[in-house]
Amino acid sequence: MSGTDDKSDVGADGTRAGSGGNGTGGTGPGTGGTGPGTGAGTNTGPAPGADAASTPGAGGDGNGAGGDGTDAPPALTTPRGRRPVVAALMLGMALAAIDGTIVSTAVPQIVGDLGGFTVFSWLFSGYLLAVTVTLPLYGKLSDTFGRKPVLIAGIILFLVGSVLCAAAWNMAALIAFRIVQGLGGGALQGTVQTIAADLYPLKERPRIQAKLSTVWATSAVAGPVVGGLLAGYADWRWIFLINLPVGAVALWLVVRHLHEPSRPRPAARPRVDWAGALAVFATGALLLTALVQGGVAWPWLSTPSLGLFGASTVLAALTVVIERRAAEPIIPGWVWRRRTIASVNLALGALGLLMVAPTVFLPTYAQSVLGLGPIAAGFVLSVMTLSWPVTAALSDRVYNRIGFRLTAIIGIGAALLILLAFPLLPYPGEPWHPALLMLLLGAALGLFQLPLIVGVQSTVGWAERGTTTASVLFCRQVGQSIGAALFGAVANGVLAARLLDAPVTGLPDDLDAVARALEDPGALSAAATDYLRRAVDAAVDHVYIGAAGAAALALLALITLAPRRFPVITEAAEAPRTAGAADRQDTSS
Q1: By C-alpha distance, which of 121, 102, 109 is closest to 221?
Q2: What 8-state DSSP symbol labels residue 360?
Q3: Which of 261, 315, 444, 461 has the fewest other C-beta atoms within 10 Å?
Q4: What is the per-residue pLDDT for 317?
């Protein structure tokens, strides 16, 4: 590695390449990203209105093939031509973004109508599993057959699942139909983000990414409100039926206005690695089931847990063998051989891990320790969704000066300090204390996530962008699943240790049961209530320390694995668009 500073991908001729990309979907705030601007000095990035293109066969970071040198159709190079497509992307993203929050508020009504209290968590786990394990498949399909057919299929599948969910007659049927919804949601999350990167040139991507970030932030706040209103004043089935008009408009806009670039007809018919797709699906399904159900439906060291982990390990090894032999693998080896992509995948996998602390445990802390109601507790968390898009939208001004890697390092370093500050909050403290930390955390993570996504998507061309985006999304989703299982075990372990010395007997011994007991403090003595609140406080403190450890892992991945300068592929501004000329600024160290 050279000793040069990471100056936002400076080319060999001393000019600075424009850099861009887009954010990833996922659960929680900040899953959208914002795009880039131009660097100082002589800008060799694309002119406004021109899509970035890559030289055919140009290497991603010196280890593989690049893009295909295609351009977007002229109709999509003007703001007016792109406007209906952007609207479609925002509506499609809204379907995926609002899903989890709107359903969670209606759980009491759903359980009261259909029963199945012991398995209702699969309403979320089943959906998450389906989204996660299908992301690699949809990414590969979008690179092979184009984004438009994959997005159309995803919207239709999501809407079919929504109709089926509204018609569910028992909890088992509803869980099955939620999985169908998740199969469509996987296509929505990955393909929308990929199209956003295709649609805008590097210089203009902040516009679309700011809009997509706003969709996620708005959904985090509006979802519980809309879900509560529909469940309380109409019927819980409307939380699924409301998807139909939104999805119908998005589908019409995509069919009518999204026109993909024409590409040369391949010499041979594209082949889909269905064996690899099935192996990836089976491996992910078993692993996520083990992570979701372990410590909940059965003990971690029980036969079901060990059996699922063992089977997923065997299937993972089989998947590697299948993918190495496949002509067009679902998860190509270059995803992990290229330092840029591998380091970003690991860093954002760690982001998914640490995000479990605020999104899962902070509401419990706010209600059980601070004594807030559900709405106020939601506000403590939602402030993070306000600062995240703002810093993401402004991050291009930073990474165009100091580079993608260094900007992300600053962001995750700040997040590490903020997470470590959480255990230092006074007990019981004021609601604004954690709210302020979450505001700062959102700002730090917006500065961390976006430059990585912008950078990694700028190192690949059209033909690899879908697979690259899917790999980032997949790693973050798996990180969230691992984090939920790991930090759940940490929290319950701390509670169990604290309750061994409890002043009274007969107290609950897991986090959910303790939270429910504290909802009715009149049933407990003042001493017991205070003891339980302190126990929850200690448990959540340990979770935040664990989240700080995940931030440290992300920081380590960036420092040790990420190249100092990302190898950006960008179109020369002076090249005629009709000729599709492109100039790759290979800026690898």
Answers
A1: 102
A2: I
A3: 261
A4: 92
Which of 201, 53, 73 lies closest to 148, judged by CA?
A: 73
- State whether the Cα torsion 162-167-170-172 is positive or negative: negative
Instruction: Give dist(CA 38, CA 15) in Å, integer.
Output: 11
Reported as a single tens digit per residue, the pLDDT across 123-152 is 887 888 888 888 888 888 888 888 889 999
3-state SS assignment for residue 10: strand
Helix, coil or strand: residue 146: coil
pLDDT for 254-313, tens place per residue?
998 888 766 666 666 767 778 888 888 888 888 878 877 777 677 878 888 899 999 999
Half-sphere exposure of 492 (CA within 13 A, CB side): 17
SS3 content of the chain, % helix, strand, coil (to 5): 70, 0, 30
- Distance (Å, whole) CA 176 – CA 36: 40
Cα distances (angstroms) measured from residue 98 to each of 53, 92, 195, 310, 464:
33, 10, 20, 35, 28
Dig out the tokens for 280 from the structure. 């990836």
Instruction: Find where tokens 């089977």 sit.
Output: 311
In this prediction the pTM is: 0.75
Comparing CA positions, the residue from 118, 581, 113, 135 lying closest to residue 345 is 135
Tokens 């470590």 belong to residue: 420
What separation, in Å, do the N-terminal and C-terminal C-alpha atoms of the chain show?
A: 5
Counting Cβ atoms within 10 Å, is residue 460 exposed (0-12), middle (13-18) or buried (19+)? buried
Contact between residue 545 and residue 420 where contact means Cβ atoms under 8 Å apart: yes
The three-state secondary structure class of 157 is helix
Residue bearing tokens 């950078």 = 455
Burial class (CB in 10 A: 0-12, 13-18, 19+), 85: buried
Q: CA nearest 285: which of 126, 142, 176, 152?
A: 126
pLDDT digits (tens, 9 = 90+) for 35-58: 333 233 333 333 333 333 333 333
Instruction: Please name the amino acid found at residue 65.
Output: A
Of the candidates 236, 370, 352, 340, the one whose C-alpha atom is nearest the C-alpha of residue 558 is 340
- Residue 244 CA to residue 236 CA, distance in Å, equals 15
Angle at 188 between CA 116 and CA 218, to 5 degrees: 80
**Residues contacting 16, CB < 8 A, separation 6+:** 7, 8, 9, 10, 38, 39, 40, 41, 42, 43, 44, 400
How far apart (Å, rounded) are the C-alpha atoms in residues 452 and 376? 33
Q: CB-based contacts of 216: which residues, under 8 Å, 6+ apart?
A: 29, 30, 31, 32, 93, 97, 385, 389
Token pair belonging to 344:
């970003």
